Amino acid sequence: MRVRGYAAATPCWSVLTSPAPATAAAFYAGLFGWTTSAAEDGTTLFHLRDLIVAGVAPTPSERAAWLTYIAVDDPEATAQEVTAAGGTVLMPPTDIATRGRAALFADPSGAVFGVWQKIRFAGAQIHDEPGSICWSEVVTRDVPASAAFYGKVFGWIDQEGTSPDTIHEYHEWISNNRVVGGLSIMDANYPPGTPHHWRTIFSIDDCAGFMTRATDLGGRVLAGPVDAGIGQACSILDPTGGMILAIEVVPELRALMG
Fold first, then answer.
1. CB pairs under 8 A, 24+ apart, for 155-160?
2. pLDDT tens-digit series, residues 152-173
3. DSSP bridge pairs for 18
């Protein structure tokens, strides 16, 4: 669906930070059929039908990672809330050219996320259809600590998820009576030492074909296809080390969601 703006406390934008942004851009363009353009701050923007989906930016780190941004009205006030709740300010509120104002934080468990205040750019212009982001979630081993932190910072209410997948415990973030994101719990399926993190999830329309295409383009399938309750899912590692989850929602549920 077309998105023209985001309410405060809603995930609004995702950027892959990569040590090899050109390689990453070529991979994702081929994987999703995206086109690209250059933003004034150096970020490469991905487009689906001329609408901005996501971005990729360089990082000095050796590891690539998808970074979730959450819409806010006052990044400075959010930075104070993060600190008061036990989190860490990694980058203070900073103008991103004329597009917006951003800050980067880590929650007390180390999961990194950003906040975004619109100036000219609100965030992803398309959401929740094949080839676009459909969900953002924090992955943690400590539900009470995460619920307390994000509740203090964004006013989110934590509730048990309503996914048809009853095998795994899942939680949702509620803001102003709307589900805005999720909390996934790390279990024994995660390798020891896996850090707490935010995860970006994409909607796709052919899980098997998507996995084949990812491999052909130099990526690696970490898991899948697996039954995610709402459809078939897979985890993909891109050639620069960034990981995404992709879900082919069953048609009946997609029709209800639409």
1. 155/9, 156/9, 156/180, 156/181, 158/183
2. 999 999 888 755 544 466 789 9
3. 58
